[in-house]
Specification:
Elements lengths: L9 H15 L4 E12 L5 E9 L2 E10 L1 H15 L8 E11 L3 E10 H21 L17 E6 L4 H11 L8 E6 L7 H14 L6 E6 L13 H9 L4 E5 L7 H5 L2 E3 L2 H73 L1 H6 L4 E3 L17 E6 L2 E6 L6
Parallel strand pairs: 3-5, 6-7, 6-8, 8-9, 9-10
Antiparallel strand pairs: 1-2, 1-4, 2-3, 4-5, 11-12, 12-13
Helix pairs in contact: 2-3, 4-8, 5-6
């Protein structure tokens, strides 16, 4: 014979639990949790699964709901402050009312969400990442790499359809100077929880190509703060820091500065600014070469001027030397001519002297050798006398 046992109905049990649980937390409380699942229904209600993990192990979870009357205000405000819509993977601080239903069990009714807390959590994680990278000696590794004077072959990691990537390509390749730079795109997700691993995979593919890259560029246009939080991820920053090729980043707007920017070789605020940075390197080198060309041209011109001046001087000296030599020779010739003219017998005859020659035309310098009867010619300045010797006397 079985003994009778005391029991209560399931409804009574659930009602007791409801009374007990709700009496423990009669007022709304703030709870920190991670959004592990989220679904917004057509009716406007938003259903969530909140959880807490420790060391990769799930510690607690609970169902939560934001009624449509609250969700239509809470969600837009959260996005306006954080710059990102409410989504899975976020750590949030929610104001909840503890609820226990005899039919559906334990749940949390969300009344409000503190957006500043979510931003603060990301900033705290960011600071921890920076400190970890610093302790591991990774912050300055990229700075030790040498970026070529003219980076010509560039591996680009970006989303193919991203406006920032298109702006970069257009600005770089359609430059007014005609500079030629080769870029190869390695597509990757540039936002969301999977983006760090996607970017790392794209960086690995660039290395696996076996090509020599002058630099690797990580490009993304502006976006919400939480959308860009992937660039504060430790694993991605560590890969960037240890990458064997100089990494240049251009992520977000002017006000953004991410951990990946800190460990990169160089960082620019926007993809267009990065394109300008590369073009400036080419323009500076072009100006430097133009300066050398001008200096060489001036140096050659000066050298030619000096050589021409030297040649002119030499020509002048040679001309002067020749002139002096010719003058000296002319003077010598004049002296010789004067002496010749002075020795001309005609000049002697003009002074009143006479010249006697025998029949053979030889000049007679005396009577010696002359006989009576010889024919002798006597020359004067104005004529000649042909004579016959009749007598000789001394």
């Amino acid at each position: 014979m079985s003994m009778e046992k005391d029991f209560i109905s399931l409804l009574e049990l659930q009602h007791s639990l409801k009374t007990g649980v709700e009496s423990l937390f009669p007022d709304r409380i703030w709870v920190k949790a991670e959004v592990s699942a989220m679904k917004a229904r057509n009716g406007g209600h938003c259903y969530m699964e909140l959880s807490q993990s420790e060391g990769g192990s799930l510690q607690a979870k609970a169902n939560a709901i934001i009624w449509a009357s609250k969700y239509r205000f809470v969600a837009p405000y959260f996005e306006s402050v954080t710059g990102s819509p409410l989504q899975e993977g976020m750590t949030i601080l929610v104001q909840v009312q503890v609820n226990y239903s005899e039919l559906y069990g334990f749940s949390l009714i969300i009344n409000d969400i503190d957006p500043e807390f979510s931003v603060g959590v990301k900033e705290l994680e960011r600071q921890r990442t920076i400190e970890r990278l610093r302790k591991e000696g990774l912050m300055g590794l990229q700075k030790e790499l040498e970026l070529p004077l003219l980076p010509r072959r560039l591996a680009v990691v970006s989303a193919e359809d991203a406006a920032g990537y298109r702006d970069f390509v257009r600005h770089l390749h359609e430059n007014p100077y005609g500079f030629k730079v080769e870029t190869v795109l390695f597509p990757a997700l540039m936002q969301g929880a999977d983006s760090p691993s996607s970017i790392i995979s794209a960086m690995d593919r660039a290395l696996d190509e076996g090509e020599h890259w002058d630099a690797l560029l990580i490009l993304r246009g502006g976006g919400a703060k939480l959308d860009l939080a992937c660039f504060d991820d430790y694993s991605l920053a560590a890969v960037v820091a240890q990458y064997p090729v100089p990494v240049l980043t251009a992520v977000g707007h002017d006000q953004d500065f991410h951990v990946c920017d800190m460990v990169a070789h160089e960082f620019l605020k926007t993809p267009t600014a990065l394109a300008d940075y590369i073009l400036d390197m080419y323009e500076c080198e072009d100006e430097r070469l133009s300066s050398f060309e001008t200096r060489i041209r001036i140096a050659l011109s000066n050298r030619l001027y000096r050589e021409e001046s030297l040649l002119d001087s030499l020509a002048s000296r040679v001309k002067g030397g020749f002139a002096m030599k010719i003058a000296a020779m002319e003077s010598h010739l004049n002296v010789l001519q004067a002496r010749i003219e002075a020795s001309d017998p005609r000049r002697i005859l003009e002074r009143g002297y006479a010249l006697a020659v025998n029949a053979d035309g030889l000049v007679l310098k005396g009577v010696k050798g002359v006989n009576v009867g010889d024919s002798v010619s006597v020359m004067f300045a104005d004529g000649r006398l042909d004579c016959t010797v009749r007598a000789l006397s001394s």
